[in-house]
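[User] Once you have settled down, look closely at the record that follows, and write a paragraph about the fold.
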Amino acid sequence: MQKPRSIHIPFISILLIIMTAVAFQSCSNAKKVTYFQNVPDSISNSYTISEHTYVEPVIQVNDQLYVTVQTIDVKPSGTETSTGVANEKNSTYIVDKNGMIEVPLVGRVNVLGQTTTQAKETIRGKAAKYYVDPIINVRLMNFYINIIGDVTRPGKYNIVDEKTSILDALAMAGDMSITGKRNNVMLIREEQGQKRFVRFDFNSTNIFTSPYYFLRSGDVIYVEPLKAKSRSATTDYSKDRWLSIATSIISLFALTYTIVSQSNNN
C-alpha cells in the first residue's frame, strides 16, 4: 500500500499569507482616513462640485456688534467738530430686546433681523445726516463655534469671518486625529429653540452641497473616535493591539495547519 504523500508548505508561503492579511488591513485603514474618496484618482480628470449657496446670518437680540463710523469731514449741522474716526473708543454694542443699538452721534438704530451688510446701510443712512460720505463697518463679535471630540485642538473658537465652513472649522482645530471617524462627523445646531443633529461624511464631496456646510454662531462640531480609540480610554490599548496581532498570527498558522492536515489525509 502506497503511503500518502506529505505536502509541505514552505515558510515563505506562510509569510506571504501573513503579509497579504496585513496589506488588506492597511487598505481598510486607509479608506477610513482618506477625504473625498469619490474624486477620481487621476490628474488628467478634473472634478468640480458647487458649494451650497451661502446665506448671511441675521442679527438677533443680545448679539454683540462692532461698529465703526469713519468720515473725512463733518457736515455743518452735525454736533461733531472734529474729523476722522467717530466713537473709536466705544464701538461694541449689544442688541437690546427691541433689536436696537445706540450709536453715539448717530442715535438709536434698529438692526434686528438684518444681516451685517444690511445693518451697514441702515447705519449709513442715519450717519449721513451728520457726516460726509461716512464709511461704516459692522461685524458680529459673538460669532463662535465649539469643536469637540477626536481633533488635535478641541475647544471654543471665536470666528472673525462670518462665512466659515465646517472644513474651515476643522482646519482651525488642527484637523481630525488619525483615529477620528471621518464618515460620521456630527454638527449640532440650535434652530427655533430645538437642537438639530446633522451628520457629515468627509469621505465624500457631498458635504459641499449640504445646507449646513456653512456654520452659524453657537454650532457644535463633534468628531467621534473609532471604536479602538474608545476602548483605549478604559484599557491598555498597546496590549490590546499586540493581543490582536498575536491572535491574527495564531489564526493564520491554525488555518495553514488545517489545510496541510486535510491535504495529507487526502
Notes: Residues 132 and 196 are 46 Å apart (CA to CA).
